[in-house]
Amino acid sequence: MTTRGSVLPPPVADNHSGPSAHPRRVPGEPGLWLIILGDIVMFAVLLCVLLYYRSSDRAGYAAAQSHLSISQGLAETLVLLASSLAVVVAVVAYRAQRIGRANGAMLIALGLGAAFTVLKVVEWSTHAADGLTPHSNDFFMLYYILTGLHLGHVVVGMFVLELVRRMAKRPLPGKHDTDYFVGAAVFWHMVDLIWLFLAPLLFLVV
Q1: pLDDT band, very low/low/confident/very high, at 174 (cuts 50, 70, 90)
Q2: Using CA atoms, how far apart are residues 13 and 133, in angstroms rounded to an integer?
Q3: How many Cβ atoms sit within 10 Å of the Cβ of residue 128?
Q4: pLDDT tens across 93-102, in order?
Q5: Where would I find the H helices in the chain?
Q6: Cα 72 to the chain's mean position, in Å?
Q7: CA atoms of 17 and 81, how far apart (whole Å)
């Protein structure tokens, strides 16, 4: 309680409250999200084309799809999911300054990415040997386009993961190194997420 004429002290500013004290921001570099959005839109359009073909020729779609191996698709999916888990471990370790653990997890992710690439090339080679090429029918034309584009993103993602893995081992980290590391992880997760939509439509949905 104060008496008349007394002067109240000015309010103390709370630097730990208010919406601007800790501004929220998306992980990684903002420009990366434009690339991710563009990729998602591109694959969404192609998946819509695939669904349109399926609806217009269900018998032809089912006949062509029967040449794909569900076990092959499952193996590829599990490999990519495991790689995403390894990338999560790497990010958590990097933020905790456990660089050795982050480096090891990234190497595991890169190895799994390489394994996915080998699996996909073997799959393509098997189909080509059986005479199933992009010229066989609409299904295999879209199959090669979609899986080829996706594999291209896997290769790019592996290149980016390797860059940030080497960056993390520098003795003097840069100002934006964490953003780059997290951004690479976000890109890799986007590649895996696209596959989780793509694989069921190619291998399972009749």
Answers
A1: low
A2: 69
A3: 12
A4: 999 989 999 9
A5: 30-56, 58-65, 70-95, 99-129, 138-168, 177-203
A6: 20
A7: 39
